What does this fold into?
Amino acid sequence: MAQLVTEAERAAQRRLVGVVRTSGVLTGGGLAMWREYNAGEWKASAAELSQDLDTLTVPHEIVIAFRPPRAREVRRRKGQEVRVAFAELGKLVRWMPSLQQSIDELPSETPGFTFTYCEPRPTGMTMLALSSFAAEWPAWTAKQAEAMGLLCAECRFDLRTPGAERRLAYNIPTQPDRRRLVCGDCCGNGLSELERLAAAGQTP
It folds into this structure.
């Protein structure tokens, strides 16, 4: 027996299908839709997308997310991203069946929402997950990645390079709440003795 669809559900479905097709980003973490602050009445806000997802009973979250600055801009762009976790995509596929093909074709090693890096501490190495980048961060150009601090501060190696486990990103703390990412080849040059010991899993 076919399930009845309300007018509110149909309207939410139409709006979301349009947004997913034009600005949705599918990753190993799920689906993300980035919204810039003060985008104007012509573009649905994160809150409006969230309301439509609620209408369709699709679990999701809204997070703060940043994109690289445009030409001649200095500051990175702050916005909001509406994210549907990969495990919840089936609830959205019900309303957008064509999304299933994109999910099936997604490579198994596709990065998720978060960029992972290491930080040496006196208690040992800590793995940190940076989730404030917009979901398309793996596809940014080298120039965009540099503007967002994703190139090694010493040798300019692209820290997003897949399969470069020996050159994982390390944060050398210089100021509280500030990142200075370097690659595994360079981090020994900038770490203090305590940080080098922590990186080696030792204690002073």
About this structure: Helices lie at 7-23, 46-55, 89-93, 99-104, 142-147, 187-190, 193-199.
